[in-house]
Amino acid sequence: MGKYIMALDQGTTSSRCILFDKAGKMCSVARKEFAQYYPKPGWVEHDPHEIWSSQMGVAIEAMSLIGADAEDIEAIGITNQRETTIVWDKKTGNPVYPAIVWQCRRTAGMIEELEKDGFGDVIRKKTGLIPDAYFSGTKIKWILEHVNGAKDAAQKGELLFGTVDTWIIWKLTKGRIHVTDYTNASRTMLFDIHKKQWDKEILSYLGIPESMLPEVKPSSCVYGYTSASLIGGRIPISGAAGDQQAALFGQCCFQPGDVKNTYGTGGFLLMHTGNRAVESKQGLLTTIAVNPDGSPGYALEGSIFVCGAAIQWLRDELELLEKASESEKYCLSVPDTNGVYVVPAFAGLGAPYWDQYARGAVLGLTRGAGKAHLIRATVESLAYQVHDVIRSMEKDAGVHLNSLRVDGGASANDFLMQFQADILGGEVVRPSCIETTALGAAYLAGMATGFWENAEEVKRNWNMERAFEPSASEEKRKKLLRGWKKAVRCTRDWARDE
What is the Cα–Cα distance from 475 to 285, expressed in whole angstroms? Predict the structure, then answer.
């Protein structure tokens, strides 16, 4: 048996590889950022070749950092940015168009047409999703309609579609395996989450041939083996899950009612609901999660489009920060935001608003507002958005949440975690390993090969690093939330043509 499980964590802004040992400890980490392309306002693209080369590069780097070879790797688990859409030629393996990223809003008009046609309810009922440009379905339709010859090639069975997990498995196996898992399939807007199969009615409406789509399998099973020439041996690829479902598993949220939030590029709250698909009345999504035994279960999800990306905006576009981690220092340098609110609706608003025409805004500015106030207001906006989703989850599930498990890059920010506890009026719990997305992928891969026997063994690895308890008064909390709600109202419907 190998010493390590390799987790390939293909995110929105970077590709990472982490090697975990049996105790769930990170033994080696390698990371590489890659380019973001914005060809038009609201459009976001990646280069699929760059996704692959960066992911392969970090895999080799992580192994070399600790002198590991292929024999030391028991299995590979993959977790990925979801919804991002790649279409490629089956024979050549070349993408016919850049990857259309989950944040891309180019198909908003298609979603409007779909709703006008009365097809929105079909999608909601079958897929558990709210029709939105966020999901893969209309992105595939756009590629088939706008890339010369793509529609004909697809009809002839010459093109393949995949989310990023599918693309990486295809590349790792040198084109032998075209597969996805239930969690990623559930984010395409093409998958019936109740029957657990691709939906012919939706495919027909969008004009997508089923021959393009990958086979759907459980998140914990052996899909195939790496081509020996890539990493120096045939390693089982035995785990795959969309990043948020992987994080839910990595946080050991196995019981109905368990909730986690991942503060990544976006913010993603998932509540495990076991084998019950809860239909949301509060603007949340019903999605497929992974049960403790690796079988498909269900979760309620609230997707926040811009979370860590708001801090990147401060760093890259406004150049107010050298490093994202500096934001905490500025937040603590002022007692409050001086009345400033930032609503980072750069790509519209996700749950629970689902307003694809909302746009970002800075509100409440006075002459006394400075750099630190703007930075603090931006960081606080992450916590406000999480609050809005949690209150919606409580209504849908009929429970009051006492504790929120957190992970992802921004969860290392103590100021943000304390403010999150204050604004929620509840406990926020940070585990000792905040790389739970990669850890979840590792657990899924390792359970399929016997590296870990079962979820109980995995659960023993979970440790709390710190719990943040609310310290703000109820009066202060309510006042801050009133200001936030007013700020959100100002951003609604901004980009809609009159």
Answer: 31
